[in-house]
Hints:
It contains 13 helices and no strands. The chain folds into two domains: 1-135; 137-257, no CATH class. α1 packs antiparallel against α2, α2 (30-54) packs across α8 (163-177) and α10 (194-217) packs antiparallel against α11 (225-246). The chain has helices spanning 3-27, 30-54, 59-62, 64-88, 94-113, 115-132, 138-158, 163-177, 179-185, 194-217, 225-246, 249-253, 258-261. It is mostly helical and 263 residues long.
Amino acid sequence: MKKKEESKHLGKEWEEMSIHLNSFLETGDQEELHRFRVQVKKIRAMLSLIEDASGEHAFLKNFKPVKKVFKYAGNIRDAHTTLQLAAHYGIKNEAFESGGLKIIEEGIIEFQHKGKKFIKNIKHACRQINDQLPGIDNDGIAEYYDKQLRQIATNLAVAGFTEDMHTNRKLIKTLVYNHKLAEKALPGHFPYNISYLDKLQDTIGKWHDNIVAAQLFLSPELNDKPIAAKIRRKNAAIKRNITLLTEDFLNKATTVEEAEKTN
């Protein structure tokens, strides 16, 4: 893949990230914040692929200013999703709700106050990364996918339902995020089942979200054991589904149905 194609793809993703960031700075809208964070993950995934396929390792280092903004945004987003989770299960706790709202409100004010600096640092990171982009050999992209899938298969064979499973999800999501770029580099012979990988990472994500939710309802602030037990029962079914999905992982991940190829 030529540098021009990489630059075009990166520029498109970077522009979308900037749009959502600017929108959040103007409105404080949580959905814009979420979309900004998703775009950061997509760009980071692309840079991981470029580093591995090219053998050059400055890209993620130069991406650190964006990751700092991502972490600031995460504090606000986590407080928001926690309140949403409590509301979903019908929890009424004024102290808990007011504490969460305070974190969100103060976080947005601080984020907006730092907005100009964030934008300046992100623009600088974009220029720096774009100037350094190498051309990637298409075989290197194929090798990257093959290597990552073999690593995930090894991990799944030995990892139980621990934090390692969540780590596997991150590795799978990186492959899913990069599939459009990789498909352009490997037209007509992209032998990876993205639909399967996306379904697997989504299911693992639901399992992990329930783990976090159960821990929240067992915290001293809420201390609601019946809801925590309900979530754990729900998660037992998800775990069985993950077990089925991960059987023969490598074969499933590299077997693409004809119907999917034509979509």
